Amino acid sequence: MATVLSQYSATGFHRATVSKALLGGIFLSSTAVNVPWSSHLQKYLFCDSSDVILRGQVWKLLVSRLAFPNAKEIFCVAILIYYFRIFERRFGSQKFASFLLITSTISTIMELFTVHAVKTVLPDLSDKIGSLPPGPYSLVFPLFVYFWYDVPKGAGTHLVGIPITAKTFTYLLGFQVVGTSVNSAIGAFCGIMAGLLYKFDVLGMKSKFKIPKSLGDLFSATVAKLIESSPPSASSIPVGSLEFVGEF
């Protein structure tokens, strides 16, 4: 089903409080581990798969998801989250949060076993892969699936034979993050796979796994009240609208 997003879709975080909280959390945690007086905390972002699978140290896996150790990743992911807030505005905060929870869980599990399998089968690659990719890749890359399928290309042109559309810049940001290391590529790949599983409703996960409404109401009454954005003024509404195809 084809629909059209509001013209407000390109302004601020109005009706996108989950995205705003996510962006703020990632920015604060990533900044905290990159300033000189707390940079020693970066070591906790690197989690070896053996620590989790063989020793049961799940806390290391959870901590490794909290922040990015690289300034370039922080910058690129911040822009991506800002752009992808259109999905929250279109589908609602509770459904969007459920999507993030499900896909990030699946993606993280896939990352864990993929890295462990590669290191076990191909030990020569252990030096290149090292630990699990540090940072919340699993919260961003699943959204590229919906971006690919549901956001149209729009008008475009060609540069030295390469097609350039309104979506190209977003893909380039994603490649900037992926190109950081082999670990980053694994994190991005697992995130995209998790997004595909959700998109095509494998095992009926869209209907079976949802954040309880009571938790959604609690977030709306507490955190959302503190960070919610006001509607954009009429003067800030862009001319034209962004078409959106498909369902979440």
TrEMBL record:
Q: Where in the cell is it found?
A: Membrane
Write the protein's name.
Answer: Peptidase S54 rhomboid domain-containing protein
Report membrane topology. Answer: Multi-pass membrane protein
- The residue ranges crossing the membrane are 62-84, 96-118, 169-198
Q: Which residues form the Peptidase S54 rhomboid domain?
A: 56-200
**What range does the record give for the signal peptide?**
none
Q: Which GO terms describe its cellular component?
A: membrane
Q: Name one GO molecular function term.
A: serine-type endopeptidase activity
Q: What is its main location?
A: membrane
| Keywords of this entry | Membrane, Transmembrane, Transmembrane helix
Matching entries from InterPro entries are given as: Peptidase_S54_rhomboid_dom, Rhomboid-like_sf
The keyword Transmembrane belongs to this UniProt entry's keyword annotation: yes
